Amino acid sequence: MFRNAMPRYEILSPDAMEILDRGWKRIVSEIGVEFLDERALELFRAAGQKVEDQCVRFDPEFLLEQVAMAPRSFDVQARNPANSVHIGDDSMVFGSVYGPPFVREGGVRRDASIDDFHNFAKLAQGFSALDSAGGIVCEPENTPLDSRHLDMTHALQTLTDKIYMGNVVSGANARDTLAMTEILFGGREAIETTPATISLINCNSPLRWDDRMLEAQFEYSAANQAVVLTPFLLMGAMSPVSIPATLAQQIAEALSGIALSQLIRPGAPVIFGSFLSNIDMQSGSPCFGTPESGIGLLCTGQIARRFGLPVRSGGGLTSSQTADAQAGYESLMTMLPTFLAGINWVMHTAGWLEGGLVASYEKFVLDVQVLEMLQHEFTPLEIDEASLAFGAHDEVRHGGHFLGAAHTMERFRTCFYRPFVSSSDNYDRWMRGGAKDAAARAGEYATRKLAEYEQPPLDDAVREELEAYVTRRRAELGD
C-alpha cells in the first residue's frame, strides 16, 4: 500500500464548491433518485423522505446526516496480514482491471477464459505495487454463467493472498462471496469486525439504482463490508455535456447510495465512487484518458474530501485497441491526476484496454511499470546534509566526472529507479536484441513473471472447505 504524502492538487474554489452544493441539492430534492428495490424505498420512507412510486426525493440535510455516519477511513484485511490495507487518509490502494469480456495477448484478441483469469490473478500477486487482483479481472466465458462467480472468488482467495472484491451480479452471488469469505477468515464475526472485501455498486446513471446492484449492496453493507457507490457517467450520454453539471449529478447519485448503506447499517464502510469521462460526440463511442476526465478526477478527489469520505476514481484507462502510444498517453492522462487528487481506491490500475472491453497482458505489465514510476515520483524528497554530497564535490573538483567517485560507488545500485520494461540501449544493441518495442518486451516480461509465480500458502483445511462449498453450490445452481 502506497502512502501519498504529497500535497493534493485542488482546482475548485470555495465559490465553485458552493455552486455545486446548490446543484446537487436541487437534483435530489426536486428531481429525486430512483431505487428499484422495495426494501430501499421502505427504509427511505421510514426515514421521512418523500417516496413516490420508485422515486425518492430527499431532504439534502438528511443525506448529509447519513453521510456523516460513514467512517472517514477503515481497514480491509487480507489473508496475509502483510497485504492488509487502509482505505482513506493519505493511502492509495491499487487493484487491476475489472470486467472485460475479452483478452488480448500479443496480436490475438479473443474471449476471456478461466485460465486468463488465473493468469491475471497470478500477475497481480507477483507485483508488489498492486494491492489487489480486483474482482472480475476478466469475464471467463468458458465457465457456466450461473456459477462462474464461485470460480472467480475461489481463484482470488487461493491464487493470491491480497484483498479482493466481492461479486455484485445478484444478492445470491453476494451471499456466496460472503460465505466463502467467512470460511477464509474464520467466521462472520471476523469479517464484520474488520472488512475483508470491497464491492463495486454502480449507479445506472442518470439517477437510478437498479435492483441487482441494490440486492448486493444490502448483503455487503449488512455484513459491514466496504462498498464503492459509483455513478457511471459518460458526459453526453449519462450526464449533460458539462463538467460542472456532471459533478453535481455525481454528488447526488453517490450521496444517495451512501445514505442507503448507512440506513442498512449505520457506520458501514463506504467509498465515494467516480467513473467520469465523456463520449465522442461524432461517433457516440466512450472516450478515456481525455482532458475532461482528468479535470473531473481532480474535482472528485476534492469533493470527496469535503464530505469526509474515502474516494475511488482513476486508473490506467484508454480507448486504444492495442498497447500502443495512444494507450500509454491516455492511461497517463488518467493515472497522473489519480495521484495528484490523492485517490484512495484505484480500480483498473493495470490491464485495461479498448474502453474496458479487453484485458491485455502487455498493457498489464506496462501499467504496472507506470504505477511504480509514479509511486517513486510521488515519494517526498528527503533533503539533508548527507544528500548534498559535499564530499563528492570535494573529491571530483572542477571539470571531472562523478562516475568513479566514492559517493557514486556506494550508491549506484539504488540511487535511481530502474524501469523493468524500458530500454535505454543504444541503437546497435537494441537491434541485436531483436528491435523489440515496449509492448513486445512487456509480453515477454509477463511470460517470465507467470513462470516464476509461486502460490501463497493456505491451510489445507480451509482449502478443502472452500472447495467443498464451491462444489456444493455449483450443484445447487445446476452447473
Fold and architecture overview:
The chain is of the alpha/beta class. The protein has a domain at 2-8 and 67-377: Trimethylamine methyltransferase-like (TIM Barrel, Alpha-Beta Barrel). Helices cover 45% and strands 15% of the residues. The chain is built from 17 helices and 21 strands. It has helices at 14-31, 38-46, 60-67, 114-126, 148-159, 171-185, 188-193, 211-222, 243-264, 291-306, 325-340, 361-377, 390-396, 406-411, 427-432, 438-451, 460-476, and strands spanning 2-3, 33-35, 50-52, 55-57, 74-76, 85-87, 91-94, 102-105, 108-111, 132-134, 163-165, 197-203, 208-209, 226-235, 270-273, 275-279, 286-287, 311-312, 345-346, 352-353, 358-360. Strands 10, 11, 12, 14, 15, 16, 17 and 18 form an 8-stranded mixed sheet that branches. It has a 4-stranded mixed sheet with strand order 3-4-2-13. It has a 4-stranded mixed sheet with strand order 9-8-21-20. β5 (74-76) and β6 form a beta hairpin. α3 (60-67) packs across α9, α6 packs parallel to α8 and α12 (361-377) packs across α16. The radius of gyration is 24 Å and the shape is globular. It starts with a strand and ends with a helix. The model has no long low-confidence stretch (mean pLDDT 97).
